[in-house]
Design brief:
It is built from six helices and five strands, in the order H-H-H-H-H-E-E-E-E-H-E. By secondary structure, the chain is α+β, with helices and mostly antiparallel strands. It folds into two domains: 93 residues, Helix Hairpins (Orthogonal Bundle), CATH 1.10.287; 64 residues, SH3 type barrels (Roll), CATH 2.30.30. Helix 2 runs antiparallel to helix 3.
């Protein structure tokens, strides 16, 4: 046990420092996102979702840095990451609408002027929508129409259409099923 520690002492210390730094960065990001969420009136669930996106990004960065700490050659790391990103790129191209909705969800977290409970009108020439926002999720908005019908609306489309705020805080808790 002592010989393992002695042989890999520098790597163990570097890894420990890396983990501590990344935990601090993650904590700062999560606290900042929650503060922005509270200030803009979004739900804790949305702030948590953005925090998870940041955590996944930090884990990928940590894996890359850890590979160099453990002595991997740049050529080898480049080969692995380019192969992985090629596969991910092809998969994301195949499902671009999902990626588009997730990206729109992140954009909406920071800059969407409407919040849960607001009554909005979406100006779509084919299918105009007038509804109350019940939830804002990673992929879509959950809307409740005046007749009680529940509707989902993709995040990427809500950013492409003109939207009018009809009434602030129009959600009546007694109408939620």
């Amino acid at each position: 046990m002592n010989s393992i520690f002695n042989n890999y002492q520098d790597e163990i210390i570097s890894t420990t420092i890396l983990l501590i730094v990344l935990f601090i960065i993650r904590a700062i990001i999560v606290i900042t996102v929650k503060r922005i969420g509270r200030k803009s009136g979004t739900t804790e669930a949305r702030a948590g979702l953005i925090g998870r996106y940041a955590t996944v990004t930090l884990v990928l960065i940590a894996i890359l840095i850890e590979a160099f700490i453990l002595g991997a050659q740049t050529r080898d790391v480049t080969l692995v990451f380019s192969s992985v990103f090629a596969v991910i790129g092809i998969a994301l191209f195949a499902i671009w609408s999902i990626l588009s909705n997730v990206t729109s969800g992140v954009i909406m977290f920071f800059s969407f002027p409407y919040k849960v409970g607001d009554k909005i009108k979406i100006h779509d020439k084919d299918c105009p929508v007038e509804a109350i926002i019940e939830d804002i999720r990673a992929f879509q908005l959950i809307l409740r129409e005046d007749n009680g019908n529940l509707m989902t609306y993709p995040n990427n489309l809500i950013l492409q259409k003109a939207v009018t705020l009809l009434q602030k805080d129009a959600l009546d808790d007694s109408t939620i099923l």
